[in-house]
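This part of the workshop introduces the protein records we will be handling. A record pairs a protein's sequence with a compact description of its fold. Comparing a sequence with its tokens is the quickest way to learn the format. To make this concrete, we reproduce a full record directly below:
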Amino acid sequence: MKFQGKWIKSQEDFGDVAPTFVKEFSLPPNVGEATLTLTAFGVYEAILNGQRVGEYIFAPGWTSSKRLQYQSYDITSLLQEKNILSVTVGKGWYRSPLSGWFEESDTRRIKRAQPSGFAAVITVDGNQIVETNNRWQVHESPVRFSELYDGEFYDANISNYPLLPVEEYPGPNCSIAPQQGDIICEVDRLKSSKLITTPKGEIVVDFGQNLTGYVELSLPPCTKAGEEVVISFAEVLDTEGNFYTDNYRSAKSKLRYICRNGAQTYKPKFTFFGFRYIRLDKYPAACSVNSITAISVHSDMKRTGWLASSNPLLNQLFENIVWGQKGNFLDIPTDCPQRDERLGWTGDAQTFVKAASYNYDTERFFTKWLTDLALEQHGNGCVTHVIPDAMDGQGGSAAWADAATICPWQIYLTYGNKEILENQFESMRKWVDYITAHTTDANLWIGGTHFGDWLSLEPPPEEEPDRLQGSTRADFIASAFYANSTQLVIKAGKVLGLDVLAYESLYEGIVKAFRKKFTSYLSQTEHILALQFELASNPQAVADALAKKIASDNFSLQTGFVGTPYMLHVLTKYGHTELAYTLLLREEYPSWLYPITKGATTVWERWDSIKPNGDLQTANMNSFNHYAYGAVADWVYSVAAGIQTIEEYPGFARVRIAPMPDLRLGWLSGRVETRHGIVISKWQYTGKNIRYDIVTPSPAEIIIDGKTHGVDKGSHVFFGDI
């Protein structure tokens, strides 16, 4: 779209203060349908005649610097004969720091950025009646400071800021496109669950749930002008029970609010936090804990998946995974929502995309993010580590950059819309071609810089605490993912009716070279990848060796971000389902349930973010809201509950339901709302046998005790052997 309105900004540099642009205009009575269309450098909030326009928080969202989204709002019901439109623009992702360890380059980026400004158009019945131009005015807003990492300072005590002139300036040197992804909005509201006085004498409010968002203050009529509220945010308390923010690193994560006289309500305009606890550093005497509400914000995705079982700890894990997704699916799939990072790490996204697409309808969400991935992709096919790119173009790591192939293929399987493959195929192909051009050995990926099996427990952390990549050979991981991405290009190409003979030949060469190069497997992850990507020449023997290795490791997983998502899948596929359940239900460290025994309400970044002795892991990298290990949910949906997509019938047009019970659970239920309707798979031990209650909205293959039953849509009951 080419905006008819001009881009405007303040003539005066407001520094950290967010500008508010104002326009008064008149209309005849009973005007027709009216639309406000706008976008901004930064994030905006529009107010028309005292009412907020739309529910979109942090519009226009975070995209590649090569494009900018705009939004259109129906404002018909808000218009009067005399109107005042005001638009306040904060720094957002455009001018806030975006990486705590890229300080120098981040500072250069911010200095190069245009000042906060915006463009808008109002149309009535298709006729343009208001546009941004130099006849608008601007004033300072009560938002005195607002950045993503450091928080917000809002002064409600002053409201008579003088109106100043604006100036027009050139628009962005990028494309401007309509809103593509889901909007970001407020979702959950949580009251405090506990008021704590810490050993240090701090006043701390516990909301009982780690979340992403902010707090809303509702102050009483006796509040006096000039009184101040200062709030800090934290995910956990330390070993002594005191407020702990070291793991936020350089992110200050504070709110400061100066009150006006009388009753008032405040919540931040242009910042968010990852937190469970708040500390009341300063507050009026009239402020009570009941006047503070936590509000979670995330992309407005529809919930489509539910898991439940007879095990309370397992149910809490399911809840933690959902909360982790909500907290980190804020316009992009972030790694974490609290520290000085909050970036769209590709490795985390590809790890979790399958589980994510069971839990929520993520088609629009990933379509938007993958569009930016393709835009940020280098001309030679290299995929940057984070999308949008905030790391000076760094990229090209195996398993991370493979998000270019893994994510679009999974979104196609879940929703059955091949448009995602049409849009992303060139990006998928370019990524595989990049590997081919940058390896030192033909048909393998040898060389390069990789993250390895990130945060693996091999070798044990106490032996090599700084070896975050684990002991799995980088060339092994890279070559295995090279094979997988090549195979996904072949599959996508065939769906699209393209000639992929060259990639089929390449794939055959990769498998042959891999088997010749890697004749033995060392770590758990090496066994897992060889099985998952069908690279082992004798897969059953490899699976048996993996099971034996897990047993020798005290029946515990040792894997990191790369091996963990596939571990239970390969064990089950090759006859070790009982061992898979042993790992799933294990409560001791390391395991999925261990964090829950320590009070976790989201998925942790590390298996031992809180160590068994109660100590906290290193503050340098220890998020308590990281969704990567929550990928285990896709095994519970697709294997334990047995709700599976079929490649030939994507989008659950035909369903395969093949549940795998375990006596240690009395019952397990999975429910998924697909494009064709709701699928339910529940199994329960009755004392004599296993009852399977299955609902399918489309024709299905139901596999019970190894026997396949073809059924039509509807409800079905089966009984199996114990």
Remarks:
- The domain at 305-640 is CATH 1.50.10.10 (Glycosyltransferase).
- The first helix runs from residue 92 to 95.
- The chain has 15 helices and 35 strands.
- The chain has a mean pLDDT of 96.
